[in-house]
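ok here's the first one, seq then struct tokens
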Amino acid sequence: MTEEKTQPNNEAVAEELKGVPEELLEQNGTGEELARLREELAAAKQDVLYARAETQNVRRRLEKDIADTRAYAATGFARDILSVSDNLSRALSAIPADLREDEKLKNLVAGIEATGREIDKVFAAHGISRIAAVGLPLDPNQHQAMIEIPSADAEPGTVVQELQAGYMIKDRLLRPAMVAVAKKPD
């Protein structure tokens, strides 16, 4: 009964060894050559694992780059449209209170205000938000100090005036707020 088990195994081994060079068969697959082949196989397996890991890393980086590109694709356009928003705000600020009540200009003022609200709505829809500035400490990551103003009322380093509004697009700076910062009076 033992011989029957050994016999099919020998035939299976002989089948597996078809095509193996004679010099390897003469060494009977033992010794240094077999150890070397096992080391090469282990090294090849390790290389395959490293290659798979690198492929996954590259895929993740590409997916992140694609997501960032989609999220921030409008950055250039948004920067350009900020000047339009600034000019619209300046136009509204330039209208004196007595002219706002004039019947001839009332519809014009209402139209300009509606356009300003619509720009703000579009900004919000695309993740563009205004940076808070006045009354806050100077944040060099969001504010650009243009001038220092002596002030006894405000703590030195506090933003006391906003010269130009700053904006963020999602979590990135689109344009810093240009501000005036308080300093100790002389």
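and now the second one, same deal
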Amino acid sequence: MNHAAFEGLKIDLELLLWFLSDDNWTITFHRASGTPEPKRNWPAAAGATILFSGGVDSFVGAVELLGQRNVAGVQLASHLTGNRVMRQSQQDLVAHLECEYGATLNRIAVRTGGRTTGHYSYPSDADREESQRTR
């Protein structure tokens, strides 16, 4: 991690997380040994990415975006959980959209989680919020 770059974005990141979750956030970055990543020139993207949960809201949003930008201009981003019903819903809806639009959709599906590392402890199940509103 480039510590200086993230420190410069700390307030913006906390504000973004507050806006998304209505929770107050305090982010603390800790320096790690090693060499910072080199600066990258990220390409300007012509498309759009939409969060795709497998629920009705994200499905409707995907349909609207696909109608505006076509399949090549849209990427779906999903959060995978251990919930088989939700995972199957995402897969079924993507299959439906691919059938409807006659093309394979660009989709990234990511499983996230936490773990205790060194002296940084990951909260126990009892200490974590059960909802996924901030996923």
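notes on #2: The chain has a mean pLDDT of 86. The two ends are 22 Å apart (CA to CA).
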